[in-house]
Amino acid sequence: MSKSVAGFSVEFAMLNPAGFYLYTLYNLQGTVDPMIGKTGKIEVNDIFFALHAFALSSLQFTQIFLYDRGKQKGINYWIVAFLVVIALLVNIFFTVEAIKPEDINQQWGTIRMCGYSKAAITFVKYMPQVYLNWKRKSTVGWSLENVLLDFTGGSFSLAQQIIGSVALGKPFFDPTDQGFNIVKFLLSIFAIMFDLIFMFQHYVLYRDKWANKGKMDDRMGKLNGHKGGDAKYKDSQ
């Protein structure tokens, strides 16, 4: 076990739990009363996804402080500033809504802002990882399994919305429709778009790097196996 996060963007790790925290609030409120935040239809799987993702992304965030980060020594303060701005915006909308709720259009209420903020974070969070892969000319250390699962989830999420619209006889993309979940739609599009970029990096641009690493790991495994066998042989003498 390498115990290294050298190929895992620190900025991605920072942004991910923040985004899923906001998305959890968005989904929970949408389940209680979708009219308050104009969230659109929230499915049960949306809630479980948000909670599950928040828990695991928080765990990933702790790992960047525990394991070797390679050349990623510092934290990008632009990302910190971005998160501070997001937090300020959400709190400003919450304060205004608490003082004068009648003056707030629910299209721009606190809960809707949580959703929009999550969409913004999702769009931004992938960029540092794309850049890190490009800078290292390698995807080693960046989990392709996670990318494939993310791509599958985004595709199914988009398909769920399309099928739901067809079943109800409604146009698919209609922001004026109270049942249309614009945030879920944006998250699906962003996930699919960036996951395709990651797959292109992994399978086309930097294929040699991870292929060579796989061969090296196989060799090391065989060497360790021989050493283990020799040790067992010596112990039995």
From TrEMBL:
Main subcellular localisation: membrane
GO MF terms held by the record: L-cystine transmembrane transporter activity
Keyword flag Ion transport: no
Gene Ontology CC: endomembrane system; vacuolar membrane
Membrane-spanning ranges: 47-67, 74-94, 185-206
Subcellular location field: Endomembrane system
Keywords: Membrane, Repeat, Transmembrane, Transmembrane helix, Transport
Listed InterPro entries: LC_transporter, PQ-loop_rpt
Topological type in the membrane: Multi-pass membrane protein
Protein's recorded name: Cystinosin-like protein
Upper taxonomic lineage: Eukaryota, Sar, Alveolata, Ciliophora, Intramacronucleata
